[in-house]
Design a protein that fits this description.
Elements: H1 2-35, H2 39-137, E1 140-144, E2 151-153, E3 166-171, E4 175-176, E5 181-183, E6 188-198, E7 204-210, E8 213-220, E9 228-238, E10 243-248, E11 254-256, E12 263-271
Antiparallel strand pairs: 1-3, 1-12, 2-11, 4-5, 5-10, 6-9, 6-12, 7-8, 7-10
Length: about 270
């Protein structure tokens, strides 16, 4: 009895479950059917996709062409930049070479200018020396004792330097009319002449001195009181600065007038 009741309940449950499952399947099929697009909609989507794909392809082709053009331009620019860089490097190198060449030329010109300046300075020095030598070679003087009037000088118990004040010639200005001393301007041989004149019973005489050393004497004495004169001449080797003068002989008298009776002369013969 109990077994029969169990089987009856089991059959009832299975029938209910089967009924619900079939109902659910029908509902699901209906939903799937509602969600599936129609063939018309699929074709429209495909056409739109084809158009869009074609547009994208055209755009891609254009972009590829534009990119290729840009690459070509870039290569041209790179080539131009390289060319300009090469030219710039060449110009820099040329500029350096020209600068070095110019600097060398400037240095050569400067050296040449310095040489010419040194040569010019040397020539100037030589010219000055020649002028100086020419000037010192032209040495000559002649003077008489009194610058005006007439009269006697002496006697003195010591030898005094006769100052020949009236200068007739003084080429080179080696003779000083204020001291009566001739100073040698250059080393060389000089010739000197001196003459003394006197009258009366007192002797007359003049001594040639070189640097305080007695060299030669011109002397005359006439007891009868007749006018007398004495002269002498000498050639002396003088160094630069040597001094030559005529001194009155001790206790003697010399006379001079406008006729230049007592004189002192000298000149350079040649340099050494």
């Amino acid at each position: 009895m109990e077994i029969m009741v169990f089987f009856s309940l089991l059959l009832l449950v299975c029938s209910v479950s089967t009924y619900q499952t079939e109902a659910d399947i029908k509902i699901l099929d209906q939903q799937i059917l509602n969600q599936q697009p129609s063939p018309y909609d699929i074709n429209a989507v495909l056409r739109e996709m084809a158009v869009s794909l074609a547009e994208q392809k055209v755009r891609i082709t254009f972009l590829e062409k534009e990119n290729q053009d840009q690459e070509t331009k870039l290569e041209i620019q790179k080539t131009e930049i390289e060319r300009q860089k090469t030219e710039t490097d060449q110009l820099k190198l040329l500029s350096k070479e020209q600068a070095a060449k110019l600097e060398t030329e400037i240095n050569q010109l400067k050296l040449k200018s310095d040489e010419q300046e040194a040569k010019l300075e040397s020539q100037k020095t030589e010219t000055d020396q020649l002028k100086q030598e020419l000037q010192v070679k032209q040495v000559a003087f002649s003077a008489s004792l009194l610058d005006q009037g007439s009269g006697e000088t002496g006697p003195f118990d010591t030898q005094i330097t006769l100052i020949f004040k009236r200068v007739l010639t003084n080429i080179g200005n080696a003779y000083n009319p204020h001291t009566g001393i001739f100073t040698a301007p250059v080393r060389g041989v000089y010739h000197f002449d001196w003459k003394v004149y006197g009258h009366g019973k007192i002797e007359t005489g003049g001594v040639l001195f070189r640097n305080g050393e007695k060299m030669f004497l011109a002397h005359e004495h006439q007891p009868s009181g007749v006018a007398v004169s004495a002269s002498n001449g000498v050639a002396l080797l003088l160094e630069v600065g040597d001094q030559v003068s005529v001194r009155l002989w001790d206790n003697s008298v010399v006379y001079d007038s406008k006729t230049h009776d007592t004189t002192f002369s000298g000149h350079l013969i040649f340099t050494m």
